User: What shape does this take?
Amino acid sequence: MPGGRQGGRRRSRLRLSNIYAFKCRKSSFQEDHSQIGGPGFSRVVYCNEPNSPASERRNYAGNYVRSTKYTPASFIPKSLFEQFRRVANFYFLVTGILSLTPLSPYSAVSALLPLGFVILVSMVKEGIEDWGRKRQDIEVNNRRVKVHDGNGNFRQEEWRELKVGDIVRVEKDEFFPADLLLLSSSYEDSICYVETMNLDGETNLKVKQGLEATSSALHEDSDFKELKAVVRCEDPNADLYTFVGTLHLEEQRHPLSIQQLLLRDSKLRNTEYVYGAVVFTGHDTKVIQNSTDPPSKRSRIERKMDKIIYMMFFVVFLMSFIGSIVFGIETREDRARAGGRTERWYLKPDDADIFFDPEKAPLAAILHFFTAVMLYSYFIPISLYVSIEIVKVLQSVFINNDILMYYEETDKPAHARTSNLNEELGMVDTILSDKTGTLTCNSMEFIKCSIAGTAYGRGITEVERSMAMRSGGAALVGDDLDVVVDKSGPKIKGFNFQDERVMKGNWVKQREAAVMQKFFRLLAVCHTAIPETDEATGAVSYEAESPDEAAFVVAARELGFEFFSRTQNGISFRELDLATGQKVERVYRLLNVLEFNSARKRMSVIVRDEDGKLLLLSKGADNVMFERLAKNGRKFEEKTREHVNEYADAGLRTLILAYREVDENEYIEFSKNFNEAKNSVTTDRESLIDEITDQMERDLILLGATAVEDKLQNGVPECIDKLAQAGIKIWVLTGDKMETAINIGFACSLLRQEMKQIIINLETPHIKALEKAGEKDAIEQASRESVVKQMEEGKALITGSSGSHEAFALIIDGKSLTYALEDDFKKQFLDLATGCASVICCRSSPKQKALVTRLVKSGTGKTTLGIGDGANDVGMLQEADIGIGISGVEGMQAVMSSDIAIAQFRYLERLLLVHGHWCYSRISSMICYFFYKNITFGVTVFLYEAYTSFSAQPAYNDWFLSLFNVFFSSLPVIALGVFDQDVSSRFCYKFPLLYQEGVQNLLFSWKRIIGWMFNGLITALAIFFICKESQEHQLYNPNGKTAGREILGGTIYTCIVWVVNLQMVLAISYFTWVQHIVIWGSIALWYIFLMVYGAMGPSFSTDAYKVFLETLAPAPSYWLTTLFVMIFALIPYFVFKSIQMRFFPGYHQMIQWIRYEGHSNDPEFVEMVRQRSIRPTTVGFTARRAASVRRSGRFHDQLKKNFIAF
Assistant: This one.
């Protein structure tokens, strides 16, 4: 397109401000500007003087931004805090310190070394993850922009070096490095196009315009040499849509608004360059103000694990307390029972200072308590945390390298940026999703239209395509739409229209050719798009404010009405002349553009054609356009309404096209009133304009309707369908207008036709009247009352339909959401929302997205997942239990603040249903097994101490105690956490209800946890008493030696190593060679360690010196006892599991039975199990298709046939 050249030496001649007739060129001071200088409005910016003493005294924030969790200074203290806020780690720190005292039953080194290893591994992992965030920060902060050096020249500087007051020059397609005051641009009237997708998620371009006072004087680089100006404005805040300030230039004051502010992370589009003054930097910018510090997220399982450890603490302290009382009593009565001598003479109480002295029994009992607390610490698995850390890192590696979540087009694999939340992926109850760039791929396609009551377009939408696939190839649409599945795909961006009756000029042969000509002319003229002509090829492309408009002008071009030029007051296009059959160029004089906005829901242009006729061309939403039709303009209304409803059911966005001829006198009167209203500076300026345009846009003649597809990302409907079958609730939080959100809701099957929509907004006549009156307090009160009333009516509607299986959808706009989220009403809003199958929040600010996410998370107590792609989603991602960033679009703010990044929304299906379920199942089983083996080990320690009259004597050697959790039982459980699969990925897809095991936390319920602990208790009792009894009354070897502590301890320890590892064999569902190596290797490692450690000198190996080779291995009773204990200890679990599997199976066990019995390929049996996941109130294609079947009996035979075929 025509544009300015580098250096500003040639500026674009097109004065685009004339296109935007609603914009007031001259700003005036209004009520808001009276606050400048007061509280909240104290910022002073000295433009072009960033290093002046006055600027430096202000000490504003720099432009460096940080998204990391740690800094070099805070890493060690903060990460240590993160580690020791885990209650088990803190407990082991306390026992480690106590091990340095004479009370310790074991050496200090054997206690502190494992703890140090655990903490070090965890800190290294945290550091590696935060370094990844640091590298992304470095990339953003090191971007470069041209900055004025004070001498009329601009030099390249890094973003991080920018200061408040700097003058910068931003080139086309560059991001704004800070919040800038627009001074001038490559256009004469200082407008520029800005893409705000990173802020509000919208892809349509916004128009910004600088003040005439600056744009008229600042044309080239050298013009800035003498610039001196002062900006006084509001302090940093999070409001993206307002800005209040004044510019003091040459002793004149000029009011500033959001129209002059260019926000950081927006992108300059369709404009060669802009000059701007830096107003807010770094963490003062509005986009950063809308984000929060990266939270320290912990999974629900980890928090519940803390509760288990608290319970184990209680058990440990209770056992220590009871043991100390028994020990005190035994010590006090020791001399009395023996008639003055000590019965426990072998403890040498006469040589003891306190511990076994009968004269100091109370003090001995207290000291014993501390010793017992250290001794029983083996009930708490010290390697649990570090093992989980290792497992989560390895799980993340599998997620990152999953080829089925790799997006080849952008070379983006999945990326787990933190591994702390892997198991939370299997417990998600509610997904809160952005729309633009997350569900959609930011492109619109013209696909169907209705002209003069006839439907045209044989394309098929993604919704129809998915429904056709599920119906065996026949699309579930109306009979009058001759829909054919076309797999060739669109060949032209924005155009996917196919109909031989219209293409290649065949429309002239239609009966209503004159109406069709007016229809296509309207598409070519009624817009604000700007054409760009390729000088080499002559091809015309378009830059438009919205994807819809781009699709319309492309459609008009492809159908023979090519818009190719726009001037200050004219639009030129080529069309096929009906009379001559030749291509002719036509020029319409553009008089006014009446812009589209969410209140008007329509856009119009007033033009004069070549015959001198005045025409009003209008397009808008059906609910406002049909009521504006003239009595003689409703000829095609009935058929058009039918087609619009069919298009909506197919998930398409529709607009009604209409026109009328305008009388000259009427236009003169309109123009006079319109210009007066436009130039007024009163608070009701917008209302005056609305009234005047409302009168003009009436008595229209209907031409037809357009239908464009807001192109979803590939696989979005199927993904939503599968997630809905899994029982996951999906909310959409979008900055788009309500109509857009509703349409995309239909497109991805979050909404369906028979759903009852509960719409909460503030578009009531009473509130509109109050807004005209400008009474702020009255407006606020009335709005609050209206929202509460609408919520009560919605709740009553849901309550009244209980038992009828009716599905409801809640749709609420941003203004209403403000009141619904107030403390007094947010519970009421949550109750209403959770009673609906779908929830869509429109016009949501980033702050509101975060607040809604917080409300759902805290109000339901369930796991929430936020997913988005822009900076406007950062607060939501950080507030949610899990934040998923979409990395397939421009901007990295969402990815930088996310926990996991994926390239496409559809990958969420595999991430949750497969990886999420596996991670949840593995971590749950892993933790349960950890407590099982530690209770088994700890109970034998307790029983031995009880057997030795609570003398604080450990059953095992010091290093046996320390290395049990590190070497002899940890590797198998790590392998379980990484490789086990209770159900294959194919069955996870086939039976999505399996996911509810995580949502309902069935695999980590207290019932299951206590069950595993009880299993550990039974196992320990069996091991200890069988070993003790087998060796108590017999000679241990031919030399007549009886079993001492080292022999009994070694035998018990061997049995424990065998039993806990064989228990793992019984618990694993999916064996790999890794499991075999680590299980049998752990057992072999015990024997190797026993021999190597026993071969060391007695001073180091102490009572383990040659215990295996000289005593245990030669004794047959040692091997027989081990074999007998293995069988007897595992029988209870085996019997229980067999009964449960046969008579009370869990859902994953049912699926295992299906696979085992060979029913996995039996469609009827599989479908019977799958039907458990489909509920009448759910969303998605499955529910939509089921509803279509319920509504119409004509599909029953087809469905039955398809089911049998399937």
Observations:
- The two ends are 54 Å apart (CA to CA).
- Residues 907-947 form the longest helix (41 residues).
